[in-house]
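S.,

Sequence below, as promised.
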Amino acid sequence: MNVSTGGRRLRSRGATAALVCAIVLSPGPGYAAPGDPDPNTGQSIEDIRDQLDGLYREAEVATEAYNAANEKATEQEKRLTTLRKDLTRAEKRVKDLHALAGAAARTQYRGGDLAATGIQLLLGDHPESALDEASQARQAMRGLVNVSETQKTARQELGEQTEAATKELRKLKSSRADKAAAKQKIEKKIATAERIEAGLEAEQTRRLAQLEKERAKEAEARWTDSGGSSGGSAGKGKGRGKAQGPGGGTRVNGAAGKAVDFAMAQIGKPYVWGAVGPSSYDCSGLTSAAWAAAGHPIPRTSQAQWGGLTRVSLSSARPGDLIIYYNDATHVGMYIGGGQIVHAPRPGRDITTAPAASMPVLGVVRPGV
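The prediction came back faster than expected:
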């Protein structure tokens, strides 16, 4: 080999290495077996799968944080609106009392009487009765003595409501900041994962799909081994699921049946983080929308669903129950029977059915009880 040829080869290798750094993952040869390492990166298909799973898991954790912050912000906005209305009423009351005190002082200075009905309309618990009950005029006149004290109390209430509104506004700003930070993290993780997947060749994509099928089969076996419910199966594919109950093979009825039917009808719609329908969903957006459609609203996030709904044993899971995944409760699917769930998996995927044991199970919760 002459020097010029060797130099060209070295430059070619350098260009290839730069491309690998640019796209994170370089395509491997089509002849490699699923477990063989990529000759350029040293990564096997399992390594690539784990890397992608890790990125999407981190995006899902951030999605839960986003959803929680969004829920907080929504509630805080409602609370702030109520506080502002209370504040407006309190300000008006202080203003009216101030005017009344001034009128009382002027009337007393002139040696006259302040109209008792006007005082009662402002200070009485039942102002609508003031015009009909003239006998209370004397009592209302005596109320003038308490105008100063009433003013003091009203001003105190005004101060408390002003402080409450200020605190709520600070909380709202904090929740919005958390929401923005979570959004940024989600988008970053998803972009990295998409860049990796875009760098794969067709053969690598095929091998990844093959690996996912193998893992799905293993997950089905794990469900039985782990003591999962032997409940009946649910219809797969698009359309309304025909979920069956455990043991007896009878389709689940009532609210749970409606929830399962709703979730199954969403199969094929895309996962979009933060979405609650009707055209797209994230994992907890799907389960919360399904149970809302069944007439039993449940918390929005999977963490709140885990913390706020009735827990049942894995062995007693039945269609309509929610299976919560991972130790931090950041994924959820709806059990449909036969060791299967319907769920919104992750960005880039559509709502589908999957083995109930395809992810680490934290526990099972049952809405509507």
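Residues 1-40, 130-140, 232-250 have pLDDT under 50 and may be disordered.

Coffee later?
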